[in-house]
Amino acid sequence: MGDGVLFYHSSCAEPGIVGLAQVASAPYPDPTQFDPKSPYFDAASKVEAPRWLLVDVQVRRKTRNLTLPELRATPGLEELLVLRKGNRLSITPVEARHWQLILQRLGPGRGRRAVKPRLRIWLLRLLAALVLLPVLVIAAGQLGAFGGTPPADLGVKNGRLKAPSATPNSVTSQAALWPDHPQAARAAIEPLRYRGDGPAALRTLATILRGMERTTVVTERPGYLYAQARTRLLRFTDDVEFSLDEAAGVIHVRSASRIGHGDRGVNRARVEAIRSAFMASPAGLPAGAGAAR
User: What is the pTM of this model?
Assistant: First the structure.
């Protein structure tokens, strides 16, 4: 098994080698020799002593036609059995030296020359696209393509921050004020609780925001903070707001993504990180605790 095979066309206009194969099985009796209806039936052959054996072959590739005249003109192939005068065998052995010379003359094959360059070009184009696409996307993000437009309706109106987003990419501590909103339950998050002076607690919160990576405090006025937070590579921008409610002893918070559908929990994680830093300060109280004055 594994021996090389040359496909040789003889009953045609241009006899020659047209393909390569390899032996894919051990020899076994040809079943047609025992079939009286077969043109290859051999009455003298017995099952216990078959006269004809065959092997399975597996095609490796089609080649160009290495014609009989070309074989005869190739130095070193003079002793190739198929070229000898009077040869009538349909299967002839090929010496290793002849095999190598024939492979050299065949080259890569007609089919391979026609297909491989096109395939290589498309693979290179695909590879280039796979490499360049992330680079282009990141470059676009760094230039602000995914930053979105700042909402025009931010801020506090009638004691309320903006309602939860229509898509699952926001959190707000005032979600209960919109009980019929489809995202109210998902967006709900605890407010920040503080001790002591409310405006001082809000200033502490502003200091924490300024110390956070890729976070910019845009608006700081009595009772209200507004910051913008951006992701590292694509520069997606989220709007983060805080509203001081001195009567309840809390600072309400809303964090929302500008674009996209979901946020993979980024807004909630951000608020919880801010809460942890705020609770570690003298102004912060644990969630659920009453205000300390």
Answer: 0.57
**Strands, E assignment, the chain:** 4-9, 16-23, 28-29, 53-54, 57-67, 170-172, 192-194, 215-221, 224-230, 237-245, 250-257, 284-285
Mean pLDDT of 258-262: 92
Amino acid at 166: A
Flag whether pLDDT at 128 surpasses 90.
no
Measured CA distances, 74 to 9, 94, 167 (Å): 18, 15, 76
* CA distance linking residue 40 with residue 36, whole number of Å: 8
Q: Which DSSP letter does residue 213 get?
A: T
Of 146, 61, 153, the closest CA to residue 108 belongs to 61
Return all residues near 134 (Cβ < 8 A) that are at least 6 apart.
Answer: none
Coil vs helix vs strand at 67: strand
CA distance 246 to 241: 16
The answer to whether 103 touches 56, Cβ cutoff 8 Å, is no
In whole angstroms, give the CA distance from residue 260 to residue 277: 28
Q: 4 has which bridge partners?
A: 22
Tell me whether strands 237-245 and 224-230 are parallel, antiparallel or unpaired.
Answer: antiparallel
Both tokens of 193, joined, read: 């609780």
Q: What is the pLDDT of residues 36-76, one digit of tens each?
A: 899 989 999 888 888 888 889 999 899 999 898 998 899 99
Q: Find the radius of gyration of the CA atoms of the chain.
A: 41
Closest CA to 230 of 160, 150, 131, 134: 150
Bridge partners of 157, per DSSP, are 160
Burial class (CB in 10 A: 0-12, 13-18, 19+), 102: buried
